[in-house]
């Protein structure tokens, strides 16, 4: 397996670092628009693991906005798989580039949505992933696999949902992804500061678009942002966190493969974060459409959202100043295999202190990066096979969870997952 890794930011950097401990691949080509970032990732691997490990990594430059460039770089390095680790706005270009190059494809976020033109808070328009799922027949005919949404959420959460359906429940009322954390970021003087632990570009996209809910008798429909608040008690010391509806891929993916009466996604944002997002929206700073701005060198066109992202700390750099844990999981309700009512939460917790010590990577991006590496290994060993555009829930969950939880000394990833009866 020869993997073209597109993007050496926080998640791409973590993917390479996690993969460096594995032997299932021949080469990973680490690429970025700024080649020096890819080189820095490989240098970290060289320092940590030595030249023998680093020799399996190659750095190159890429423009992820151009399908033909993605295809050319994939062909140049004889890539068998393209791993997309950049912002969702590049999904369609990289997706098309991988298709043209004849490779497999993986991503952690899907093609962007567009709200309903007249009823955005009750009806869906173009949904997350619609453009990719529409191409599934083409990928299947060519024998290529696009494994989409294989981060942590979506990704690990979808695997948990598939496991619950297959092994824990005879009937599912709701598959409810619930994400929460107790992370805090400090400045150099020890004061708590506002610094999102994941791409603010992506966070704006998720949190200010109309959230989507799926119900068996109604299909997909939308609500206003931050709707239906609830307090969810997260495990391993995180505790109660208020969660709200947020647009997310799980709701668009799970109903395609898994039987449930309802599918939801709620995220623990907190009052301060919601307030910041509402302010950005009121000032139109959430817009992705370029506007004309005067500069010392004359007028330029910039996206307000890109300006916000540039003004905030890079999520890849805040790890040393961050404390706490993040939790991703699925809350499942329904009837157990014995026909009696059952309610469980399947989850994985990532501790920032541990990920920084082991990988020099903050816990949110590291937890996101873990899952595509596991999936790539399952593809390399033919434990997961298929063609078309498929989500993680289209595959048997047990090989994934077994490999994730097994100790490193036994060939696993040493990341146990939890199952809590509610």
Describe what is shown at a glance.
The chain has 422 residues and is of the alpha/beta class. The chain contains 15 helices and 20 strands.
Q: How would you describe this structure to a colleague?
A:
This protein has 422 residues and is of the alpha/beta class. It folds into two domains: 2-151 and 365-417, NAD(P)-binding Rossmann-like Domain (Rossmann fold, 3-Layer(aba) Sandwich), CATH 3.40.50.720; 156-363, Dihydrodipicolinate Reductase, domain 2, CATH 3.30.360.10. The protein has 15 helices and 20 strands. A hairpin with a 3-residue loop joins strand 9 and strand 10 (219-222). Helix 1 (10-19) packs across helix 14 and helix 8 (156-168) packs across helix 15 (397-405). It is globular. The relative contact order is 0.15. The mean pLDDT is 95.
Number of domains: 2
CATH architecture of the largest domain: 2-Layer Sandwich
CATH class wording of the largest domain: Alpha Beta
Structural class by helix and strand composition: alpha/beta
Q: Which terms would index this structure?
A:
422 residues, alpha/beta, Rossmann fold, Dihydrodipicolinate Reductase, domain 2, 2 domains, nine-stranded mixed sheet, seven-stranded parallel sheet, 20 strands, 35% helix, globular
């Amino acid at each position: 397996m020869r993997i073209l890794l597109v993007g050496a930011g926080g998640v791409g950097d973590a993917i390479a670092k996690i993969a460096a401990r594995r032997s299932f691949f021949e080469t990973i080509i680490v690429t970025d628009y700024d080649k020096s970032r890819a080189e820095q990732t490989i240098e970290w691997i060289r320092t940590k693991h030595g030249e023998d490990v680093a020799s399996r990594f190659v750095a190159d430059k890429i423009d992820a906005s151009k399908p033909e460039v993605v295809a050319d770089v994939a062909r140049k390095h004889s890539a068998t798989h393209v791993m997309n680790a950049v912002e969702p706005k590049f999904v369609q270009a990289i997706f098309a580039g991988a298709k043209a190059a004849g490779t497999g494809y993986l991503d952690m976020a899907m093609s962007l949505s567009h709200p309903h033109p007249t009823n955005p808070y009750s009806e869906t328009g173009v949904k997350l992933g619609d453009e990719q799922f529409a191409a599934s027949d083409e990928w299947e005919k060519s024998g290529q696999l696009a494994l989409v949404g294989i981060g942590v959420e979506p990704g690990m959460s979808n695997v948990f949902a598939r496991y619950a359906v297959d092994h824990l429940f005879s009937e599912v009322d709701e598959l409810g992804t619930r994400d929460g954390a107790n992370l805090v970021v400090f400045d150099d003087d020890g004061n708590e500061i506002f610094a999102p632990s994941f791409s603010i570009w992506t966070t704006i996209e998720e949190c200010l678009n109309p959230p989507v809910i799926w119900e068996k008798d109604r299909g997909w429909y939308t609500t206003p942002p931050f709707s239906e608040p609830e307090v969810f008690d997260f495990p391993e010391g995180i505790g109660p966190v208020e969660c709200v509806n947020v647009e997310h891929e799980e709701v668009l993916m799970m109903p395609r493969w898994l039987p449930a009466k309802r599918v939801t996604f709620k995220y623990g944002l907190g009052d301060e974060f919601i307030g910041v997002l509402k302010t950005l929206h009121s000032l139109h700073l959430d817009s992705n459409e370029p506007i004309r701005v005067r500069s010392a060198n004359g007028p330029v066109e910039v996206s307000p959202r890109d300006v916000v992202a540039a003004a905030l700390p890079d999520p890849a750099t805040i790890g040393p100043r961050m404390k706490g844990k993040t939790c991703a999981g699925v809350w499942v309700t329904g009837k157990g295999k014995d026909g009696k009512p059952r309610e469980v939460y399947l989850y994985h917790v990532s501790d920032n202190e541990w990920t920084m010590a082991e990988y020099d990577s903050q816990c949110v991006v590291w937890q996101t990066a873990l899952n595509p590496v596991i999936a790539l290994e399952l593809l390399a060993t033919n434990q997961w096979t298929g063609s078309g555009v498929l989500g993680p829930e289209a595959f048997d969950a047990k090989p994934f969870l077994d490999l994730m939880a097994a100790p490193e000394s036994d060939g696993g990833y040493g990341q146990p997952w939890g199952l809590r009866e509610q």
